[in-house]
Amino acid sequence: MFARVFRVKSNTAIKGSDRRKLRSDVAATFPTLSAEQLSEVVLNKEELNVIKLYTHKGEAVTVYANSRNPVLFEMEKTLYPTVYTLWAHPDLLPVFTTWPPVLHKLVGGADLMLPGVVVPSSGLPQIDRGTLCAITLVGNRAPVAIGIATMSTMEMLAAGMKGKGFTVLHAYMDQLWSFGDKTCPPTIVSLEGEPGTEHAEEEEQDEKRDEGKMSENSLPIDSSLPTNIGNVSLNETPESAEVGENEDPSENAAAETVEEGNLDVPQELEDSRSPQEQMDELLHQCFFHALKCKVKKSELPLLTSTFLRNYMFSCCPKGQQIDIKKSSYKKFSKFLQSMQQQKILQVKELSKGVESIVDVDWRHGSIRSFVVPEFAASESPAQDSKGADGEQMYHPPEIIPLYGISSKMVLLFQEAGYKKGSTLSSSEVRSAIINYVKTNELVDETNKNFVKVNPILCDCLLNKSEQDEISKLKWDDLLSRCLDQLQPFHQVTFAGQEPVVRKGNIDPIDITIAQRSSNKKVTIIKNLELYGLDPQAVANILQQKVQASATVTTLPGTKDRAQVQIQGNQINHLAKLLLEDYQIHRKYIQGLEKAPKIGRKK
Fold first, then answer.
1. Could you give the CA distance from residue 28 to residue 22 in angstroms, rounded to a whole number?
2. CA atoms of 233 and 221, how far apart (whole Å)
3. DSSP character for 329?
4. Cα–Cα distance, 505 to 503 (Å, whole number)
5. Going by DSSP bridges, is the β-strand pair 95-98/132-137 parallel, antiparallel, or unpaired?
6. What is the pLDDT of residues 431-475, one digit of tens each?
7. Tens-place pLDDT, residues 464-474
8. DSSP code of 64?
9. In terms of pTM, does the model score above 0.85?
10. Could you give the strand order of the β-sheet that contains 500-503, starting from the edge strand earlier in sequence?
């Protein structure tokens, strides 16, 4: 579950009531804990944080962590201990033992297969299907993983100790363990009758006897493993888990069956999957990433070739490249046909030989459950806004409309402590008006939705023709009239800079289409500087995207303002750049309605 990097949604300190509820839930889930042990798991006064996260598969998990390590995690209203907690309380769960070479498979996300389980002379613990169990290594009782049993003990023995035994949820050296202080497991000596004690001398003799006989591809069992599993290396390839021919056959079976049950090997490890399987996974990842984050309903119908080139390719992780021929589908049309059979999207041939995506079911479970990869979630939406000289990424400014108090409106706001020229936000204006009405007892007694108009309100808000006719105003009308009478200002705040207040409303980014000689059209963009955009950088990006000539010239009538001019009607591309990449609100862009109709000749 935690084989790959997870995404943290929130990290907050636990409330007192939640701490008490957590303690009672832990006591109910693990009744063998004494009161003293319970206070060690859920500390009474020390800091305890609640961390909500999403795994790489999209599973929602809540982690409870103290100042050093995660101690518990909760999924689907069920609590599970971490390895850090089990090291302090090794007898909290039923224990099953496996061989040291199996560990790095468990860390990679594999489940524990029954041939890899060591059966002690005293027999296996008696459990039912679905029981949460701890997994240890031979010679050390410190748990290295926890998992849910897929069979009862009777079913395991009846199956001849074959098949999947445990669905592994969390393991030593996975990403949840890395969230803590990354300490190694302690050495807890095995009890009499447990696996490891009875075979210790035999294994030592076998090691001496077989020394020097192991093949180059075999993995010798380090004698330090039973007492110090922290020495197990994660940099070994999957092949390194193979065991020499003279070693214990159960150990060999463990490595082989875990190889078959390997589900999710992190990219940091050398992948044991075939290149075709890896390409299929990359194809699916980019496909769902593009549908969830890139494609908009307004862009449909969308050419399948455009979807692949402009959307899926851009979702490909750095250092990787989509090659359809290396996948099991061989052709992109077959891949889309497979997705269509799952009712994720609909593809039609709108013109002869040209297929288009005409509909997407964004409510489909596969799209909704897909979690954007960490590399993409951490990137800025305006990644493409870097200039050729490597300038900083663009962040849209925060624009707040403000209202200035004119001489006509001073009397209405002076009771709130404001003077002529003061600038207020809409919420501050609303608060001042409400306080003025309540202080002067102007709320109508018969209908509290109305406000009585006194002489000051009359002079400030009513026209001369209305002063003899209107004696009451609705609250909404009162506030809207007040905002209309105030002078417009706006405050612009760029990332890392002090806010700047300017008079008037901010000019929108103006996009126009002009006619040039030979009936050619050009797109002209103005006012980019007001939003912190470099006209030259925007021109360079547009030129690369549409493969058309772009120039930057001085805006007529100004000295420090520029305009971008690019050949053709490029409003569709410009809209995508401004709205999606730069994240500028549509209300600050003027001229998007002049975009050419899709499917018609420009």
1. 10
2. 12
3. S
4. 7
5. parallel
6. 999 999 999 999 998 998 899 999 899 989 998 888 888 889 999
7. 888 888 889 99
8. E
9. no
10. 423-424, 398-404, 487-493, 500-503
